Amino acid sequence: MTKPARLRSWCALALAGCAVSSAEPAAAPPARPAASAPGEATAAVSSGAARVREHVAFLARDDLRGRAPGTDGDDRARAYIEAAMREAGLSPLFGAAYQQPFEVTEGVAARAGETVELRLGDTVLPAGPLAVSASGRMAAAGRLVFVGPGVAPQGAGTGSYAKVRPRVLRGSVVVALAEDPADPHVDPAALRIGARAIAARDHGAAAFVWWDPKAEPADVAALARGRADDVGILAVACGAACNEGLRRAFGVSGDGVPRPGAVARGKATVAVPIERVRKTTANVGGVLRGSGPADRPIVVVGAHHDHLGLGRPGSLAPGSHEVHNGADDNASGVAAILELARRWAARPPAERPFDLYVVAFGAEEMGLLGSKHFVAALDEASRRRVTAMLNFDMVGRYRPDKGLVVSGVGTAEAWGDLLDGIETDLVLRRKADGYGPSDHSSFYEAKIPVLHFFTGNHPDYHRPSDDADRVDAAGIDRIVALADAVVASLVARPRLAYRAMARSKASVRGFRVSLGTIPDYAAEVEGVRLSGVRKGGAADRAGLRAGDVIVELAGRRVDNLEAYMAAFATLQPGETYEVVVLRDERRVRLSIVPDAPKRRAH
Predict the structure, then answer these.
(1) Which of 135, 281, 286, 512 has a 20 to 30 Å separation from 89 between CA atoms?
(2) pLDDT tens-digit readout, 148-162
(3) What is the pLDDT of residues 59-111, one digit of tens each?
(4) In the chain, what are the domain boundaries?
(5) Looking at the DSSP assignment, which residues form a beta bridge with residue 404?
(6) Is CATH 3.40.630.10 the right assignment for the domain spanning 5-106+278-489?
(7) Which one is the CATH code of 517-592: 3.30.200.20, 2.30.42.10, 3.90.190.20, 3.40.50.720?
(8) SS3 of 286, please?
């Protein structure tokens, strides 16, 4: 999935291969929660496909506004899923509650009573904060310096900065144009807005301006959302409303842009008095208790319920502020887990030698935050009982020529034989790896066997056109039947042995190197905590392991994920670099030799 420079999806950050996410089964048609629009209740239907269609239609409605975490649409989607679980006969999973709340950071905003400013002399231009900005104000005015795209692919003095005098940049306000450089070989990690802001900081600038001459106010506002990693420099975004003021300052006429290295007349100051925006969302979970001893196994089936709202970071429709309904991603998966739950609720507990947990995870699109929270909240005894996790993410577009991708087949020795023993007319494309940018990774990192179901990428992915009328409900019902048979097969072998898998042959397109690190996007630490490393990858060979916090890479300080990506962009395959990690409160120095990315298998 090629992503525009301004809106790189979080999955490109894993640096270990970007498989597309998956979704889960569904339960019986729930009573509509109070949040539903009047007149939408329908008579119960017997067809699994009809129930699936009903679930997808509700979750992908325009008035849920794309189910972004912490919004009213998110609340209503969770209420609907909880009602469906109740009606199917599931008991609450979290004590007496069906929902497991947790907080997420959704970008930054100006502190109450304060404003974000880009001031040129006495003129204030309409600027907004960037999510990567530090908070504060410039102590003194600085030169306004234009640096073209503002990319420094190999560090100081390279790329856009090659012909800009260093003394001009010290204490300046750097203006970078929102376009990619002409060189197609620049590592995508260097094209991130955060990496460009860090490049300005490393060249001595006091502030950074991201200028997109075509951006409308909504585009500028969107750049304040998403991860909020302070990269150590004041940073603002300017759109079309700034064009006249910036061009006048640089002496540019018409629709032109300044030459790289141009210095504006007068001086500029920047004020970014911001704070992080915290919102609350939740996982929704129900349980079907099985029979047998108290320490009987647990089988988890899951799918994420969130999506991109009106196009938060991750959208592949830059400039669009339409509702991203996420019918395939991932109303399809939620519909699948609800229907699978309905099937299993119809069986007596005596036919289940395990407990079945059915979980709709929140904030997957922000970095698997809900599933990571779920796994972290498991007590050790419960975690040991989890024998398998089945994940469903984007299961609504089955086509025989593309097949159904089933990932994680190598994470337990039994998976292969188990799948061989199931009769299905679905075309299965098996993959061994247990990692990928969806919620099964959170379980695989915890040494739990996983299977991940996915019907493939398509042109509507992460775009407003991913609507309910494009989802194949009958295909989802067939995938539910397959998953039902998989779970039924576990009755005879309810305990699976976890197996670690070697580094996948597939890797993220475009990156110059691969480290095989799996960052923990939910961790709020100084540095980058690893939730895992790929077996056989560069990080694994270097001795890095889950729980390490990377604080330096290739001689550059790593305060957060943006700083990590900026350092990552300077690496070359086959060269040796020092990486410093915090491990059990000790600084450990290791040597890492990045791999060249593998080509994707076709």
Answers:
(1) 281
(2) 999 999 888 999 999
(3) 999 999 999 999 999 999 999 999 999 999 999 999 999 999 999 999 999 99
(4) 5-106+278-489, 115-272, 517-592
(5) 428
(6) yes
(7) 2.30.42.10
(8) strand
